[in-house]
Design a protein that fits this description.
The protein has 545 residues and is an all-alpha fold. It folds into two domains: 219 residues, Aspartate receptor, ligand-binding domain (Four Helix Bundle (Hemerythrin (Met), subunit A)), CATH 1.20.120.30; 209 residues, Methyl-accepting chemotaxis protein (Helix Hairpins, Orthogonal Bundle), CATH 1.10.287.950. It is found in: Cell inner membrane. Its main location: membrane. Belongs to the methyl-accepting chemotaxis (MCP) protein family. It comes from wastewater metagenome.
């Protein structure tokens, strides 16, 4: 079995998988073939035998319906009924012929086709007898027609129907043959599948027996050699020496090469360890001196950092005070700007008020003019009322002269005179009211003119205050600019001092880290010396020659 030992793992694993795959493909192919056979038989049964048998049964039914229609035609009491039954008979007979022909076509069997042809001939003979029966009935010879139909006609009908019975029997025979064929195919397929499965099982058992031995045995040997190497006295001269040419054999060769390289490296490491032990002791002494110098430098940088921090705090305080002054100046500037805006809005409002007073004065003037026009109209109304009063008085005098006939006219004249008097009184009251309105309008016009003049003076004063406020704002802005420059200079100085402070702090931190590192180097040097001594002892455990 040397060839199996030297076979690569690709083939050791691939061949069994390929064999199992082949067996699986064979089993699947056989199963698909069996399913195809069953499907074909099922198609024959469902697509040929069942439809063909159904057509034969339907043809037998149509044949009986045709016979019943013939008998009803013989028993019909009038020509119309006889004609209808003959049509039914002909229709059913035609359907029977078509169904038998379709059944023979579906079955696809020569014997069934022969029976269908014979059925067609027998139906032709029965149709000929039916034609003779119809002729006898049409001639009025009903008894002879009945005798012919029940004699030769019935015998010929049975002969034709016998062909259908034979076709039904043929369908049953074909179904039995198909069932037997299906059962035989099933038995053959079971035998074939069982054989294939047994072969596959045998191959699996062989693979389970042979493959683990061919793979695990060299692995176990290699594991035992490596375990001996790791738990022994460190003999690096031991080799695995696996003769196999597979992946495990090549791995064993690489491990042997590694052991040879490791043997050489350990030999060199043993020599280097001795030199490292001496150098580690010298490094520990130098590290202790370096740590002492770094500690002194760290103390000096701490003192410089403290002084720089105090200077930074002083500059930051100055910058903070200047910043507050700049903020106060800015706040004053903003308030002055707000006040200027307020004054500007006040000027706008007062000017708008003056314009409103002008428009109101114009309205009062129009009101005065309208009141004067109303007074003129009232004078006209008053004159009309006086004239009406005189006319009413004259009418009353004339009515008194007329005596009894002018009494009604006198009453009307009295009412007119009364209304004229009331009109004069109302007109006088309206005139008084209009005079008061005119007087108030003139006073309002004078007050509005005075208010307009005062609003103009107010605008002038507010604008003067605005100009003074702009001067103050300019001064405050100048102060704010100077304080901003001072604050900027203080901030730059503070930034410079902070940069110096950061550099000193960084130097201090570096000194601290250097001191810590020096201490760590000293500790590491001591540890390195100890490890070098320990490594020297460990190297002594390996046997390199």
């Amino acid at each position: 079995m040397r060839w199996l030992r030297d076979l690569s793992f690709r083939w050791k694993l691939g061949v069994p998988v390929a064999v199992l795959t082949l067996i699986l493909v064979v089993v699947a192919g056989l199963s698909m073939s069996l399913l195809g056979t069953f499907a074909h038989d099922a198609r024959i049964y469902s697509g040929e035998l069942m439809p063909g048998g159904s057509r034969v049964l339907e043809a037998d039914r149509d044949l009986h319906q045709s016979l019943i229609a013939q008998r009803r035609a013989l028993q019909a009491g009038n020509a119309q009924e006889r004609k209808e039954q003959r049509a039914v008979q002909a229709e059913n007979l035609t359907q029977a012929r078509e169904r038998v022909a379709r059944a023979a076509e579906l079955l696809g069997d020569p014997r069934a086709a022969k029976l269908a042809a014979q059925f067609d001939k027998e139906i032709d003979r029965w149709a000929e007898i039916n034609s003779r029966v119809r002729s006898l009935v049409d001639d009025g010879r009903v008894d002879e027609a009945v005798q012919l139909a029940s004699g030769d006609g019935a015998e010929q009908f049975d002969t034709a129907r016998n062909q259908l019975d034979q076709m039904t029997g043929r369908v049953n025979d074909m179904a039995a043959e198909l069932s037997a064929q299906v059962e035989a195919d099933a038995v053959s397929s079971r035998i074939t599948l069982t054989t294939a499965l047994l072969i596959g099982l045998a191959v699996c058992v062989a693979i389970l027996i042979v493959l683990p031995r061919s793979v695990l045995k060299p692995l176990q040997a290699m594991s035992a050699r490596v375990e001996d190497l790791s738990s022994g006295e460190g003999d690096l001269t031991i080799r695995l020496a696996n003769p196999a040419r597979d992946e495990i054999g090549r791995l064993s060769d690489r491990i042997d090469d590694f052991l040879g390289t490791l043997n050489e490296m350990v030999s060199r490491a043993a020599d280097t360890t001795k030199q490292l032990s001496s150098a580690a002791e010298e490094l520990a002494s130098t590290s202790r001196e370096t740590q002492s110098n770094v500690d002194a430098q760290h103390d000096a940088t701490d003192q410089v950092g403290t002084a720089t921090n105090e200077m930074t705090a002083t500059v930051q305080e100055v910058a903070r005070n200047v910043g507050e002054a700049a903020e106060s100046a800015g706040e004053a500037t903003r308030e002055a700007n707000d006040m200027a805006a307020t004054m500007e809005r006040t000027v706008t409002t007062v000017e708008e008020l003056a314009r409103q007073l002008d428009r109101t004065g114009e309205g009062v003037s129009r009101l005065t003019a309208d009141a004067e026009q109303i007074g003129t109209v009232l004078d006209v109304i008053n004159a009309v009322a006086e004239q009406t009063n005189l006319l009413a008085l004259n009418a009353a005098i004339e009515a008194a002269r007329a005596g009894e006939h002018g009494r009604g006219f006198a009453v009307v004249a009295e009412e007119v005179r009364t209304l004229a008097t009331r009109t004069q009184d109302s007109t006088n009251e309206i005139r008084d009211i209009i005079e008061r309105v005119q007087s108030g309008a003139r006073e309002s016009s004078q007050l509005m003119e005075t208010g307009r003049q005062q609003s103009g003076e107010t605008v002038t004063m507010v604008r003067g205050c605005g100009e003074q406020l702009e001067t103050v704002t300019a001064g405050i802005q100048s102060i704010s600019d100077m304080t901003s420059q001072i604050a900027s200079a203080a901030e730059e100085q503070s930034s410079t001092i902070e940069e110096i402070n950061r550099n000193i702090t960084e130097i201090s931190e570096i000194s601290g880290r250097t001191a810590t590192g020096a201490g760590q180097v000293s500790t590491a040097s001591d540890e390195l010396a100890r490890l070098a001594s320990e490594l020297e002892g460990l190297m002594g455990r390996f046997r390199t020659g």
